[in-house]
Design goal:
Elements (H helix, E strand, L loop, with lengths): L21 E6 L4 E2 L3 E10 L11 E5 L2 E2 L1 E4 L5 E9 L3 E11 L2 E20 L4 E4 L2 E4 L5 E3 L2 E5 L2 H6 L2 E5 L4 E6 L2 E6 L4 E4 L2 E4 L5 E3 L2 E5 H7 L3 E5 L4 E8 L2
Parallel strand pairs: 2-9
Antiparallel strand pairs: 1-3, 3-7, 4-5, 4-8, 6-7, 8-9, 9-10, 9-22, 10-11, 12-13, 13-20, 14-15, 15-16, 16-17, 17-18, 19-20, 21-22
Length: about 240
């Protein structure tokens, strides 16, 4: 095209093309917990190599951040690493590999979880809830080999809604889309309209309602750890909320 003075302007467009000659393998965690960044490591390999190729260099970008790339002696295999920021929830990771003879990419997701932790000790009315000490209204205890805790401590740690039904002596715990219904003295529980059997029934002791902590915690998707030497129970729940 010519401008008003008669000069000719040229526009050069470089068109990238995909290639199936590159293979990406990754060494990354399946999940991360309360992370602000994550290291993405991997390897790019050429399936075929032309001996007289003059330029075998590659560039790797992870979510737009250029990775450090270390080639082997023949520039056939390349180790790469990049550190990228992440947020809570599902993080989309896109790895783009570019060479002079084409490009390829790989897309995946890494979940980044929030962690809630409740730490309780037998015969101790001080609980540690998400790093903060708090006095609870009754002490946990062990009965017939099962650990019982005041049922409202679940609400403090996990943000659950806990309701007491006086007429039936029933307990309802709601957390997200999970609803657990129990009744004092009964080993039958209902989880989202499914009847299950508990290994211990909820109890009333000194005017306080206690629930078997392992059953309730695991029903809410938490993990329970028992420390025999300190007589502590640690409940950990991961969420992406």
């Amino acid at each position: 095209a010519k401008d008003q003075t008669g000069r000719i302007a040229k526009k050069i467009v470089n068109v990238e093309k995909p290639t199936d000659n590159l293979q990406i393998s990754l060494d990354i965690p399946e999940k991360i917990v309360e992370a602000t960044e994550v290291s993405i490591k991997g390897k790019v390999s050429r399936k075929n190599i032309t001996e007289n190729a003059t330029n075998r260099a590659i560039w790797v970008f992870v979510n737009g951040i250029e990775a450090d790339v270390i080639p082997d002696e023949k520039f056939v295999s390349f180790d790469f690493e990049a550190t990228i920021p992440v947020t809570y929830g599902r993080n989309r990771i896109e790895i783009n590999v570019r060479t002079n003879d084409g490009f390829t990419k790989k897309v995946l997701e890494i979940p980044n979880f929030k962690k809630s932790v409740i730490e309780l000790q037998i015969d101790n009315d001080i609980a540690n809830i998400n790093g903060q000490q708090k006095q609870i209204d009754a002490k946990p205890y062990i009965s017939q080999g099962r650990t019982f805790v005041p049922f409202r401590v679940i609400a403090e740690g996990f943000g659950a809604q806990v309701d007491w039904v006086q007429q039936t002596k029933g307990i309802n715990i709601t957390l997200g889309d999970k609803v657990i219904s129990m009744q004092i003295g009964s080993t039958r529980a209902i989880i989202n309209n499914q009847v299950v059997t508990m290994d211990a029934a909820p109890e009333i002791k000194s005017g306080r309602t206690f629930v078997p902590i392992r059953f309730v915690s695991e029903a809410l998707g938490a993990e329970v750890e028992w420390n025999q030497s300190t007589r502590k129970v640690i409940i950990t729940r991961l969420t992406m909320e």
